[in-house]
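User: Predict Lipopolysaccharide biosynthesis protein's structure from this.
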Amino acid sequence: MFKSDNLYKAIFKSMIGRYSVYAVNISSMMILARIFTPEVFGIVAAIMVFFIFFQLMAEAGLGPAIINLDCLLSEDRNGLFGLTLTVGLVLSLGFAALAPAFLLFYKIPRIDEIVPYIAISLMFFSACIIPNAILLREQAFFRIANASFAAEICSTATAVGLAQFIDPLHALAAKGPVSAATIFFFIWYFSGKTEFGRPMPGHKFSAIKPLLRFTGYQFGFNFINYFSRNLDNILVGKYMGAIALGSYDKAYQLMRYPMLLLTFAMTPAIQPVIRKHAGNPREVEAVHRDFTFKLSLVGAAAGLAMFVFADSIVLLMLGSQWLNVIPIISILSIAIPVQVILSTSGGFFQAMNRADLLFLSGLLSAIVVVGAILIGIIQRDIELMCWYIVAAFHINFFQAYYYMYRKVFIIPLHKYLVKMLPAATVISGMVFWSWLF
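Assistant:
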């Protein structure tokens, strides 16, 4: 019998560990926003969009596939680790070689100077894939949080210290590789105290074969999800410049913090717990319905708070040089309730072994979001683009849960939507207020 207490206990452990990391993340943002200008942040953000794409190719769905495994031979574990190291090295060299192409694409001066820093970060990220998945499988959230906590402190201190002696652009860019290296060394060390053990470089690359079906769908989802989540940054940077991108990126980052504090702290716990009950969809649905209902209430409260206090939040978190972020964050905050709920859906699809549906839903989501972004870019208006993105998130909420309820839980969707009415009321109120004033 699947008890919801099991999920909530795992979520609680994940949240406690992650909140310490988010606290130092927020502190880091507040410090760095007062040292570096929106233009410097915009230049780094422009390259980080492509860094995320290369991360996606390096990970290729391996993490969730390993979490679902019941056993893993040491030879296979080392082979997978060796494979990720090799792929990471190749991708890092390829990323570094693309520096002239990034400069040609964006036409933002000096953007090529920070590419080597990001290439080093990519190498360490790739090395971290296998040990991190092993820790997640065993719900070792505190150990993962300790690694992230140490990485944020070390990387922020490095950026602040270097800013006193070298060019600000290079100082901020150096934060990435220091963070990635610190996380890898901690995660790799901690993985030694797990069932699968600490991975060492191996040559049995064929160990990937049994995982290909799952990783194929997962990679496909990640690939299309990348464009729906990052095309806005790419196009804003290209057509509106580094300053506009810096402001938009910071607004989006602020909007994501409630999700970081709520669902991103919870989602690592979902797949490891739910996967054990994948054969009982009705029981999983009952837990899911209860879980997301509570989440919708908290998400609605967080969205409303950010909507009402947008000006104070921007001044407190970023400072007076970021005032143009206020109208952007006010609009994006309307999407927080559905985003909070929607960001947990992937964990349930994965745990129920329906990566195929996750891929299909992600494909439809990408089409809707990309269309919204393109319309906004064509109109050269960031605020209008934000409205279109908010609408796209709500459309994607309906299609994702349609597939989950009709294809996974085999239950009509309307029974679930009734539980979302309180959050929907808050969202409607924010939209009405925005249009009225």
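DSSP finds 19 helices and no strands in the chain.
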